Amino acid sequence: MPSKVDYWLKRLLPRRCVLCGMEAGYRNLCTPCLADMPWIDPRCDRCGAALTGAAERAVCACDDLRLECIDRVFAALVYEYPVDRLIVDAKFHARPDLARASGDALLWALGSASSLSQMWPDLLVPVPLHPNRFHSRGFNQSIEIARPVARRLGIKLARNACIRQRDTPAQSTLSGRLRRTNPRNAFVARAVVSGRHVAIVDDVITTGSTASAVAVALRAAGAEAVSVWCVARVMRSQAAAAKL
Ligand SMILES: [Zn+2]
Ligand SMILES: [Zn+2]
């Protein structure tokens, strides 16, 4: 069990980049590693996909994700190396520092996305884990991602505004059709979201099924607008190749 002294030393000393080990200031990723990430730019204002060719258009066909009750998706990165490793290793090797590094990347992208300023949310709601999974993993990666974003942008992190009432199988273990039906009715949101613009925070958006299930619950509890802020997005070509 780490002592309180260890805890504060870790908080106060400059952090090391989780990718290259260089000093990274208050972040978990250094500036050169951040600059080398596979950023989505330009991105679709509605579904977060990378726009190709006609960059003057702000939206694409937006037909590869389920966007039920979701106004817009903001995704920082293409789901490929090294962010795919950060996301997978955070969850399966119990590394909350990697999830916070993903949050640093999301924050970096949000900071340069001027089009978002009219759509700034009142609350950040991390995609909840079922208590069984939270206890076995020891942390919720979406909460860790949301922490640096909430702190730096001054947006309230409402970690208990939505709960997962059904313990559904992990999306990563399922194929396409099951992925789309698995999270339905798994979530319930609390009245704190009523009349608010809420941004759901997640690590990766693949089919949009989980985010949509959370968004449906948020709307049922009275949320006025729902955005999704995620670290990475699976692109249409990647989904087709993986038969998602
Ligand atoms: Zn680095
Ligand atoms: Zn789109």
Molecules bound to protein:
zinc ion
Low-confidence stretches: none
Percent helix range: 25-40%
The dominant shape is: globular
Question: Separation of termini?
Answer: 41 Å
Number of domains: 1
CATH class: Alpha Beta
Output mean pLDDT. 89
> Helix and strand succession?
HHEHHEHHEEHEEHEH
What's the total number of strands? 7
> What class, by secondary structure content?
alpha/beta
Strand ordering within the main sheet: 1-7-6-2-3
CATH topology, by name, is Rossmann fold
Biggest sheet record: 5 strands, parallel
% residues in beta strands? 15-25%
CATH architecture: 3-Layer(aba) Sandwich
Radius of gyration: 17 Å
Helix segment count? 9
Description of the molecule:
By secondary structure, this protein is of the alpha/beta class. The protein has one domain (37-242): Rossmann fold (3-Layer(aba) Sandwich). The chain has helices at residues 4-12, 31-35, 83-92, 96-111, 131-137, 141-153, 176-181, 209-220, 236-242, and strands spanning 72-78, 123-126, 156-157, 162-164, 187-189, 197-205, 225-233. The strands form 2 sheets. Strands 1-7-6-2-3 form a 5-stranded parallel β-sheet, with helices on both faces. α4 crosses α6 (141-153). Bound molecules: zinc ion (2 copies).
Question: What's the helix and strand layout?
Answer:
Layout: H1 4-12, H2 31-35, E1 72-78, H3 83-92, H4 96-111, E2 123-126, H5 131-137, H6 141-153, E3 156-157, E4 162-164, H7 176-181, E5 187-189, E6 197-205, H8 209-220, E7 225-233, H9 236-242
Parallel strand pairs: 1-7, 2-3, 2-6, 6-7
Antiparallel strand pairs: 4-5
Helix pairs in contact: 3-4, 4-6
Bound molecules: zinc ion (2 copies).
